[in-house]
Amino acid sequence: MKLETLTPVHIGDGEEIIPWEYAVENKYIKIYTPEKIVSQLREKFYGDKLRNLLLELRNEVREYGFSKSLGEFLRERNINLEENYRVETRVPLKNRTDYKGIKSFIKSGKDVYIPGSEVKGALRTIFIFGVVYEEIERKNFFLYNRLKKIIEDALEKSYQNPGGRRDAWKEADEKISALIFRDNREDAKYDIFKAVYVSDSENKDPSECLYVDAVKLIGSSRRFFEPHELLKEGTEFNISIRIDENIKKALKKVSENPYVDYLTLENLKEFSREFHRFLYDVESSFFSRKGLEVNRLNKVKEALGNGNFILRIGKHQGFLSLTIMLMFYINKRLEGFYRKVYKSVVQRAGKEMNKTRKLTSENKPLGWVILK
Predict the structure, then answer these.
(1) How many distinct helices (H) and strands (E) make up the chain?
(2) CB 93 within 8 A of CB 66
């Protein structure tokens, strides 16, 4: 299969590219690694000259911190070094009091890739949604009430112990996963997604597919400026997704999980269309109320209209993308219940129970992709 990005995507590796690892040159940013910086300096200089240069570099890092960059240090001394890679930057990177570094995209060595676990996690979310949606359409209120009870218990725990909110919702998430994927069994070997294999994607040169832009917070008085390495729209990766029918049969035999039969690529595609159709409606409605013209959402709408297999991956997707709370959001009878959950989970919740509040500086949402 191919995975194509409809909007920018950021899958982080938990690291930041600090100013002493990059140089800004016109509209491009050149990225270095500390090892390569030292290695190249040793190739160009030696003896006292090298020793003094490394001491100057160390001292300036200590004195200036993040208010100065490697690029400035090199320009002042007329030194040219070969970068690991360079990418376009669409946001000024001069006022470094606003941020510490650039959130880096996950890589294998130097190259960019999409982890299979990221795609599989998104498939798990839409599978839970799809199963619950289908069962409720069939008037299976036994399942619905069990889910509601799990969430009500988490709400009660979060009220009783505000400091333990995260643990309460983590426990609720695990209970819901156990209910759907393992028929309430504790052992993970009974998880029906054991039958789903998603490979890591191929590797790509970051210079070809990444750029740097800032992520901003919509509708908040808080100053929020976070530069990220982002995948460009229209970037394609080869990726393999398959479902092992033999494992499915074995799991059905030993666990009698009623939802094993739902696990087909056709159903995952259908669940995805249903999930993301609702998600798109919520997201576009929110930004419309804010008077924002959001770039690339028309591409999402077009892809949904064409029946494409859509997923949302990476960071800054928003609360509804990452949970099955969309099920409660779209149910008018449970709107009040959803508001309680949202306020409990999202500690900086505003008056409006919005989908997401983050866009790039170019007003693009993050994380929308197509599986072909």
Answers:
(1) 13, 16
(2) no
Distance CA 48, CA 203 (A): 41
Cα angle: 227, vertex 236, 241; to 5 degrees:
110
The SS3 assignment for 242 reads strand
With respect to residue 362, please indicate whether it lies within any of the assigned structural domains: yes
The range of the structural domain enclosing residue 38 comes to 19-60+81-90
| Cα 275 to Cα 88: distance, rounded to the nearest angstrom | 34
Q: What is the mean pLDDT of the chain?
A: 85
Burial class for 334, CB neighbours closer than 10 Å (0-12, 13-18, 19+):
middle
The pTM for the full model equals 0.87
Closest CA to 328 of 160, 118, 172: 172
**300 CB neighbour count, 10 Å cutoff:** 24
Same domain for 287 and 184: yes
Q: Is 367 left (phi over 0), alpha (psi -120 to 50) or beta?
A: left
Question: Which amino acid would we find at residue 260?
Answer: V
Q: pLDDT for 133-183, tens place per residue?
A: 777 777 777 877 887 788 788 778 877 887 777 777 778 878 888 888 988
Closest CA to 230 of 70, 364, 100: 364
Q: Which DSSP letter does residue 89 get?
A: E
